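Tutorial sheet, problem 5. The two components below are modelled jointly, 639 residues in total.
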Amino acid sequence: MKKEDKWDLSTDARPLLATMTRHIAMRQWRERTRQQPVVVQKLADHIRLLAEEREAPPRYEDEIGVLRACLQKLPEKSRDLVELYYYEDIATPQIADQINMKKDTVCRALSRVREKLRECIERSMNQGGAAHV
Amino acid sequence: MSDADTLTQHYLEGTLSDAEAEQLHDLLKAQPELGERLIQQFEMDAMLRATKPLVANNIVRPALLPKRRFTFTTVTSVAAMAACITLLGTWVMNAALKLRPETEETTASVAVLTRGVNLEWESAAITPGTPLSPGWLKLKSGIAQIEFYQGARVLIEGPAELQLVSSSEATCTRGKLSAQVPPQAKGFRINTPKGTIVDLGTEFGLDVSAANAEVHVFKGEVELHQPAATMKSLKEGQAMAFADKQASMTANASSFASLNDLDARSAMSQRVHFEKWLTSSSKLNADAGLRLRFDFQDDEGSRSLLNHAANGGEIADGSIVGASWTTGRWPGKRALEFRNVSDRVRLNVPGETTALTMAVWVRVNGLDRTFNSLFMSEGWGERRVHWQITHAGKVRLGIAGVGSTRHGDYDTAEFFTPERFGRWTHLAVVFDPVAKEARHYANGGLLARLSLKDSSPLKIGTAELGNWSDPRGKGGVAIRHLSGAMDEFALWDRVLNDEEIAALAK
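Model answer (structure tokens):
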């Protein structure tokens, strides 16, 4: 196993980030995609092109600053969902079991939460963005 | 059949089945607008993951279910997640790490060159507006006005050698200077080989040559400290020669007269530059390869920029949207200020071009956006051209790909550091299909030379100065307006060589 395979992104992203330039990331991604079923490869390729068309990252720096404020504004249920899925790493089928919902409903709810957060960030950014530290 | 939201979630989670992958792919092909939404979902997903290290420690709720470790191995076991993390995650995490306050930028500068008349330097050439770090300034001729950050203002006439030590101290080994020291800069020191002058809030002149050193006090009081003598206090109207032995004299303002008419000489010098520029304009306009040239000298209140290129018949005048008129490089030179999300100059460059050179005089006020536009083709269609400055200060020439060919980004190293903000800078970029190179220039000097991935012709089409528009944007267009001003822009359909570009920047 290569060294970078052992890193745990949730606790230590920095060695990975320090080493992985975008090109390395792309190359690794291509190599790994090859081992996937053809349909997934095709889909992933399509999505990669869509991402590349956007040239480069949007304004993440400020956005991450306001993301935290937006998280606070979410209804409690939505916030719980974010915490369970993103911060406690619980998979959607298990979340569904736990909160007594259908699996697909959890998936749709997560999509909606991401959409809401995006809208909140857009709104905040248009009002001047995050204060600088 | 699952809906797009569920499929997206399965994709992100890495649980997409083959059938679902096919279904999502079909949906994406059938509904192009879904692609944008999908990417937005990926971005948000990546951002939420990026914030985990920042918020995870604050979660106090006990885990209700056994934790599933989120490791790189699990990520990479699924192509979808890998795409998400590798494409977007790296940028996001880097950005997240930048939030820490210790990355705040710093400057080593202690003073700024505020004005200059006929400056000729022995040391590296500097122009007014340049922040100065500790070190030697060697002036061959001309007059330079230096303002120290603590408030002292020094005029120095070449030939002179001045070493900046700190924001309140300098060493002069040769030359004639005058200093104005306001009360808040009291204690300002100038060292000479023969002694040190400590200013107590005043105006004085200093003349240092190999054989002699004189200090003349015009206002207030200074102290003269010498190694082998007691400290001397000199008051208004007094002067002293202090090379070998001290000799009292009367202050003589006339011997520093050349430093006093800086205002008039400075205005004259600027006028001369402006006149020279006006004269060179007509020659430049006649260049057969020049297709577009805006000199920004259009009538006050005009809402269009005239294309002055003699051979630029097919490129219509630029249309000003939002941007307001301001002063350019010299008094009387007009410029357009871009400060708002709507500010831009719209134009159209029809057809294809095999080679391209663009040049601009720009004053960048700040790099607030991820990308800050100089000259941008609309959208990002095949062989379109994007000339912009990244948030980190790199100048980028981006050329869109065709079909499945990837686009090319040709970046300089970080150039626009905060010290360069607010100063007029000449930038040029060359797309050279023969040498298969993109070349960037700043102030006439070569900044970067980069191999082209694809040297096929460019299609500029509808384009904007100082901003970007994207007709594809459904959920809004990325904000990329320039924060700054431009007072000259030109575009050639040929390659300009190093000498020609150096001449443009003079």
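Marking note: Chain A touches chain B through 76 residues (CB under 8 Å). Full credit if you identified this.
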